[in-house]
Amino acid sequence: MDLRRARTFVTVAELGTVSKAALRLRVAQPALSRQIAELELELGFKLFDRVGRRLVLTGEGEQLLSDCRGLLNHASAVDERAQLLRSGHTGILRVAGSPQMIESIFSEFLHRYAERYPHVQVKLIEAIGSGTLAMLERGEVHLGQHMAHAVQPGDRRFANLPLEPVELLAACHPSLAIGQGGAIDIKRLASYPLLLEDTGFVFRQTFDAACRLAGLEPNIKFESRAPHTLLAMAEAGHGVAIIPSALRTHRYKLRIVGVAHQGKPLRQPLAIFWDKRRLLPRYATAFCQMFAEHVSEVFPVTRPSEFKASTTRIKRSR
After folding, report:
1. Is-contact 63 69, C-beta < 8 A?
2. Fewer CB within 10 Å: C terminus or N terminus of the chain?
3. 90-164+269-298, what's its fold?
4. What's the predicted TM-score (pTM) here?
5. CA 296, 297, 301: angle at the middle one, nearest 5?
6. What are the tens digits of pLDDT across the range 53-85?
7. Which residues in the chain are classed under CATH 3.40.190.10?
């Protein structure tokens, strides 16, 4: 049904005459009468009976009136929603992030974002490794947090906004005197019993690559897909956990030092990605900018600590 004809029908029904309806709708009477006739022809039955100077609804017209009012109300709601969407202040935003970033960064940032965009519903999805880019390409998410080098040079599918880098840290029992000066070289670290993330994690891949570059065979004691398990194991004195500086460690009593190779800290630049082939809503663009600002304020989440170690509970393997 044409919305214009439906509006004419409802207005005539409410006012009772074509002349009054024509004044309200600012339509010439002949044109308005023609719209009623066309609607009756389309429906196949009469909508009005003429009683004196007034038009009175037929039985069919009375039954149709509430439906037409509902149709007009729904159309008005759709129009209002479209106006809100054009303003860029309402909608759904799907974002993929790593478990560590969701826990340490997104969990706090979402409150800040909601204050500015209260009508945007943010849906977070956990993703690690290449799964983030795959979700972006399939259109399952609007934005994805990942390593900056995840996209090869020349790949024109994705754009990104750089974030603060994440550094690799070594966490162990406070009594283990490693990393004098707040850092330990990977060559001195590799022989300790190591507690590592699963190979699916990018930071594990970064550590493995640094070991290969240094010609080292790391002494791997335990691997896990749950970084906090590594922290618990390290606190209990079972080895040295290799963790990203984006991971929260405040619940554990640990000695934490940076991991370096040839005097340079091991770090990975982060970025937030989107598919350039999809038009981002304004609130998504704002999310990227606000998120980058938030990350620069809170990074690193965990920093090297200073402890006076007198004894060593964990010995290197010989």
Report:
1. no
2. C
3. D-Maltodextrin-Binding Protein; domain 2 (3.40.190)
4. 0.68
5. 90
6. 888 999 898 889 888 888 887 887 676 566 556
7. 90-164+269-298
